[in-house]
Amino acid sequence: MSFGPPAGSPFGGPSAASTSAAAGLPFAGMPSELADRAERILAAEPEHIVAEVPFSAAVFDREPFTLRRFLRGHRLGLLGAVALVVFETLSLQAGPLLTQIGLDRGVAPGNLEVLWWVGVAYFVSVVLNVVTSAWRVAYTGRLSERLMYELRLRVFSHFQRQSLDFFTGEKAGRLMTRMTSDIEALSALFQDGLVSLAVQGLTLVIITVVLFVLNLKLAIVTLLVVLPSMGVLTLWFRGASERGYGRVRDRIAEVLSDLSESLAGIRVITATNRQQFNVIQHANVVGEHRDANLYASTVGAIYGPANEAVGVVGQAMLLLIGGRMVLNGTLTVGELFAFLLYLTSFFAPIQQLVQLYNTYQQGQAAVLKLRDLLATEPSTVERMDAATLPPIDGRIELRNVTFGYDAGQPVLHGLSLTIEPGETVAVVGPTGAGKSTVAKLVTRFYDPDEGAVLIDGHDLRDVTLHSLRRQLGVVPQEPFLFNGTIGENIAFGRPDADPEEIEESCRLVGLGDLIDRLDAGLDSLVHERGSSLSSGERQLLALARAFHARPRVLVLDEATSNLDLLTESVIERALDVVLEGRTAIVIAHRLATAMRADRIAVVDGGRVIELGTHEDLVAAGGVYASMYDTWSAHS
After folding, report:
1. Which of 43, 209, 229, 532 is the least buried, fewest Cβ under 10 Å from its Cβ?
2. CATH number of 67-374: 2.40.10.10, 3.30.1330.30, 1.20.140.10, 1.20.1560.10?
3. Where does 140-265 show beta strands of DSSP type E?
4. 476 and 542 in contact (C-beta within 8 Å)?
5. Using CA atoms, how far apart are residues 192 and 326, in angstroms rounded to an integer?
6. pTM for the full model?
7. Which residues partner with 454 through β-bridges?
């Protein structure tokens, strides 16, 4: 669904700027002088067909990620690339052979006709090589992009099916590295590395055969003198570069992780005057990345010249031996020239293979990182035989639930709680008592270590995640808004709704005044994370988003804790309407919110220690009564 301004343009003009300013929002639109130009550019853009991408929380590839397995599904495309490589290589290696024919059969006897035909053949081979090479580059480029598209979708889908503990235990920068630099390293390997490896490898094989055909003695000298030296250097380079590029991949992950954390916490950094300290810390992280790159570059710098020196010494020896054979009449000048030309071409692929090995090592290091990532199983697993949860009435039962985020450190201890359909239960208690953990178990962000969580008698572990969560609404303490319009954020859980329904949800939670102040209304742009809105407005939008999804069960995790008293009163009036007929769990920090619930559960030490209405609990004179007395005194 698209929400455009009343004038039909997706960009805000001067009125949008003035309205945003009047509402206390920074300007989030596009200057009017650029709007017309942007419209012309968009009109010339081709239509993008939205692909249907299958996604399942239970069914996905669990085999170890390797290059061989990943490329297996593209065998035909790879065979086509190999065929083009064969034609390209054969056309490229015709030159030295034609040179021999021109010297021995044209120059030596003075036969101009032979020289003419050799020149024509040389020209044709060059044209064929250029055409085949261009075709191969275009073909392999398209194939590489298909592979990258598939891999990026696979990694992103793997992120989407992971449980919350995966993201709380992993730095965002490391995850960004998997999707950026690691996949880019594989892109370079697919687009240039593997194909060039095939070209240079096939070139090496063809030249080796031709060398033996031209002169057996010189070919044997080449294999016995030159190749062993190159082999020793290559074995050393393989081990050293593998260690180097593994360190590079680890260090770039640290760089992105530190950058991501600094950008996310820029307000705290500025407020606490930590800019200089952060610059020093980032300099250290970047310095470690630089050192890792310098080590990898040093290894390549040693190997390349050493390998080239071996090649030059080999050519000098063969020129000396081959020259004596020409003087003795056992070798023609054309054969010697052709052999030396092929020998130069023999060393060139080896040098290229060295550079390709660098690309391969970077790609292989990326493969190892992606293999570890894709081998991570979600902790909240959807069973293969999971049933679809039917429309629910909303009876929730936590039955003897024990759960801890870390092994051996339970947060809940045998907690039991039953909530009837349409009932609102507030969960209160001291910090760390396990209030928010109850909400996370009901929404199946986590599974209990012991016991069970049931809705309408269905164990949440036995139903599909999609059928469960489409009937739940969650409003966290810290709301997250996406970069887009107000309407798009509210319709996030139900994007096919009409604008009238979205506006109704806004007015229901008390956002009507904000929408009316904006000329663009629901189409007013919101910065990433909602930075253009106040904390109260962000919370109201999050509430509207949850209400708009029409859930049967609503979970409010301290959703009113960031609101001022006036806004809180607006929300509480809206809650009376929205929660009617729905089951609700309200994790309450403020007792004013808890008092409006049908029942209140007091949680302490991971157990429900008191349960009843506000009046009953106050009359009982227990923990809740003490909390209420303290709150009343401060109020």
Report:
1. 43
2. 1.20.1560.10
3. none
4. yes
5. 41
6. 0.69
7. 397, 459
